[in-house]
Fold this protein.
Amino acid sequence: MLTDFLRRRRARRDSPLPRAASRATAFHLQPLALAAIAFPAAALADPAPGAAGSAGDPVAEVIVTANPLGRTADDLVQPAAVISGEDLDRVRRGTLGETLQSQPGVSTTDFGAGAGRPVIRGLAGPRVEMLENGLSAMDVSDLSPDHNVTIAPAQARQIEVLKGPATLLYGNSAAGGVVNVDNGRLPTRVEDGLHGAVDTYYGTNGDEGSFSGELNYGSGPHMLHADYGFREAEDYSIPGWSNVDGSGFHDTMNNSQLRAQSGGASYSYIDGNGDVFGFGANRFTTNYGLPIEESAFILMHQTRLDTQIILNKPFDGVDSLKFRGGTSNYDHTEFEAKGEPGTIFHNQQYQGRIEAVHAPLLGFRGVFGAQFNWRDFSAVGEEAYVPPVYSRQAGLFFIEEKPFDLGPYSRGKLEFGARAERDTNTPQQGEAGRPAVAERDYTPFSASLGSSFNVGADSHLKLYATHAERSPVPEELYAFGPHGATETFERGNIDAKKESSNNIELGFDHHQQRWTFNASVYYNQIHHFLYLSEVDAGLNADGSGTPDADGVADRVDEDGTFNPDGDVLLVDYRQANAKLYGFETELHYAVLQDGPVKLNTRLFADYVRAKLDNGDNLPRIPPIRVGLGIDGRWQRFDGSVDYTRAGRQDDTAPLETRTAGYNLLDADFSYKFYVADDGDHAASVYLRGSNLLDDDIRRSTSFIKDAVPVPGRSVYVGLRMSL
């Protein structure tokens, strides 16, 4: 034990990553000592009467902020999930992909400890929009799986997942779904007085330490907010060998360390009418190793400014008018080793969005709006496989809903909407050796029609149909060069057409006393689906050479020269018709809810099948999963145990390797040693375990699954306080 500890400390000194300002362990254990001093009497006190949040207690309805009509997840026709409060605390992890991977229909790209982007129903990258308080993350995480999302889960108060096409509200980059993180930086109401929260932990795997905290002060119409978060870890432990064939690194995943910091501050003026004028600034920085390579790492930073204006009933016939705007200055450098910078990515982006909710008109209530986006992207260096591109998007949209009543069992709601968008990509002239590129523009159109029906007093039947179009993104159009993260030489498709998908979904939910049940089945037919495909021509990447198709996928050197033993696989962006279909189901049952002990159970399952019309499977699709969870509460003690069984993924694309099934066991236990008289402020210590079976987990959604497994057994001890 002591030997391992000293080894990790020596590794920290020799780490290729830039040093953080303070040592993780000492920094994160300080709040534990302070809490023991501040609350010695409270630790022995009896539980406060009326303490909120007991398992099985009624839970307040949570509004989905990503929907401008202010609906709960149950009210929406489109399938949605909301994670907040103690549920979010239990699943919160270092990346958004890890945090959400236990939700039905959601997985993660899983690129080591430093990067993990959500995968929704088998779709990822430029088909899943990442939002911070309703605006784009404005990073380049959609470009490659080794690029992290610049939104820290540690600061999240609520995370919302819209499953299936959400193009009506957020444009064609949401063709597969939306993840919206509300971190409280743009508040819409005043909380009088000083409030705050702290969460800090130490993890045994990789000597990991984390701290996050926020302070809020409200007085009259003024609301101030500030938050800060920090995370640090060394190379994490793995169960056995890093490579799936039993080679590579043993017990420890080389070059998987990370450092990350994030913080923000905001001011909002909120008057008695509920009108809001707010603005904020935040900074995100991280540097993390790329475990697929020996010593390469990414150093990333983003500075972001946001503003929000909300006017209640500004005009006759308009219930509310909301404007949100943001700007981001993003850079990241991919180092080959310490002191050896490689490719530099830069993204300057501006986004504005306006929504007007109109008063009921002829029984209809809805929202209409506009969204604008300007993006100046560039990459310079050895792996700058996409040229500098200036992109512009402008969209108009509306959504309307109307309740109907055809009898005691036919009450429900009709919802429909549409969006038209104009997307333009203007690249700079190609470099020497790179094909010349031209401007491309598209006009995607999307529409949806859905309805929910009351089936008795406690059940709803939902039917939802969507036509969604997606414009190709710059890398799909203009890519030409080696991409180290995926070990490919990518060639874009300058003549790519719009993707066009037709999605239909049937859902059912039931809420009655002890029971909660949700289930949905969906079918998505996508025309002109853009995907990466291997090449068999025997030519160089620029098309020169003598054709020699031999039935084996072509490999090339990093300069694009054909070589059967080359370092990278030559792949093209191609288009073909595809279909994705599957199901999700989740059952909650309160075993004990009336006595001093609360006990709940959860059972879920999900499955997605994805293939081209020619019969080939799409790559990196999650397998079928089944999960079982138990959570409970007794006095000041809370606990949960969650088990997930993921099946073997045999439905693989050509040249894609299969992944074995795995067992994931997580647990979380906490004890509140202080509860204030109001029941809303408390302090607790917690013990959390992840992958407690120390299973060799390789997710099929990961580009590097054959060389980099997920971390092995991890145990965390932490402190959480609300002030």
